Amino acid sequence: MQASEFVKQTLKTERDEIEIIASAIDISALLASVADPEAGASSLFLGSVRNHNQGKGVLYLEYECYPEMALLEIQSILQTARERWSLKRIGVIHRVGRIEIGEAAVAIAVSSVHRQESIEAMHFIIDTLKASVPIWKKEYWQDGSMWLENCCG
Amino acid sequence: MKITLKTFAQLREKTGRGQIELELPEQATLETCLKAFLQQFPELEQDLKHTRLALNQRYVRDLTTPLKTNDEVALIPPVSGG
Q1: What is the CATH number of the domain that holds B16?
Q2: Where are the alpha helices (DSSP H) in chain B?
Q3: pLDDT tens for each residue of A58-89
């Protein structure tokens, strides 16, 4: 799926919002979306494109997604997180298409009354997302490219 | 019955198409669908060993799962989001 033809996909419930987008992630807007008067903590995770992997210089990454299923998988991860921790609001944004070094590919924000819940839930959400959500990245080097595979987290 | 088979990442590149329409016999299962796919792309048999399956946007493991017309099956290679 080419970024140019990708239409933003959103799944929104009363307290959670999931987005798959093909443009830069607005981190301030994401943090604002999990603000809650009862929350004393907001945890933010950003996954960014780095300039090296396994000893090779990386030029950029290209992300591809099965958007309809990715939204459902992330929703199911958020439901599990809500069963384990008491959380206020959750926002998850994954970007697709070509992403340059230093830019965020994924952002997760979680708010809760106290910090422990949102920190643990954020950790769980990113680990589970990497293991099961149908999103793929292709790494581009000076001399080639390769589809990657997440290992054990 | 007519079903849609979606491919992604390396499988999309190797098939040259992100979406394949398959005509399957009545009583077809996921296994029937995979066999029909491999008839078109026999060189991808190895790739399928590392591929998970989804039916209508949900992971399924049981190859005997029955299909119905207009189902959407997806071949999910090892994921690498995040």
Answers
A1: 3.10.20.30
A2: 9-15, 30-40, 45-48
A3: 999 999 999 999 999 999 999 999 999 999 99
Q: Which domain holds residue B40?
A: 2-76
> What single DSSP character describes residue A116?
H
Residues of A within 8 A of B61 (CB-CB) are: none
CA distance linking residue A41 with residue A88, whole number of Å: 10
Residues pairing with A111 in the sheet: A42
Query: How many Å lie between the alpha carbon of B6 and the closest alpha carbon of chain A?
Result: 9
CB contact under 8 A, B77 and A147: yes
Q: What is the pLDDT along chain B (82 residues), one digit of tens a residue?
A: 999 999 999 999 999 999 999 999 999 999 999 999 999 999 999 999 999 999 999 999 999 999 999 999 999 999 999 9
What end-to-end distance do the CA atoms of chain A give, in Å?
26
Query: What is the pTM assigned to this prediction?
Result: 0.95
Read off the CATH number of the domain in which A22 is found: 3.90.1170.40
Q: What is the ipTM of this complex?
A: 0.96
Contacts of A69 in chain B (CB under 8 A): 54, 57-58, 74
Q: Look up the domain containing A80 and give its range.
A: 3-147
